[in-house]
UniProtKB/TrEMBL annotation:
Stored PROSITE patterns: VOC
Occurrences of domain VOC (ranges): 1-124
Pfam families (UniProt xref): Glyoxalase (PF00903)
Native organism: Luteimonas galliterrae
Protein name per UniProt: VOC family protein
Length: 127
């Protein structure tokens, strides 16, 4: 029941392009940008989502690697996410497949983004 997730990034433009590419197969797009002029503290932020920004990247805080799971409509979308992520420069952290140790239909793929955050696409529906 997440409303949104935010990650600090080291290279805003690179990360913005990365997430635009890897989230496109899942139907997510760049919904909102917050400029340094808008924040008043010199930071930038970009929010991705489906109508409402629920996944944010920004330049203001540095923190440890984060894990975020994004819901996929089906297993094909999980595979498309993984392929897009690898093509965009992500590192493999677990290829698409069933993870029955979570539950019988848990189908996920894991990648490390340009800053080392563990990003997952997951589908809980049976094939």
């Amino acid at each position: 029941m997440l409303d949104h997730v935010g990650l600090p990034v080291s290279d805003f433009e690179r990360s913005k392009a990365f997430y635009a590419a890897v989230f496109a197969p899942l139907g997510y797009s760049l919904v909102m940008e917050v400029t340094p002029e808008m924040t008043g503290d010199g930071s930038s932020a970009a929010g991705f989502g489906k109508g409402k920004p629920d996944f944010w990247i920004g330049t203001h805080d540095k923190q440890a690697r984060t894990h975020v799971a994004v819901a996929a409509a089906d297993r094909a979308a999980v595979r498309a996410f993984y392929e897009a992520a690898i093509a965009a420069g992500a590192k493999d952290n677990g290829p698409p497949g069933l993870r029955p140790h979570y539950h019988e239909n848990y189908y996920g793929a894991f990648v490390l983004d340009p800053d080392g955050h563990n990003i997952e696409a997951v589908c809980h529906a049976p094939e």
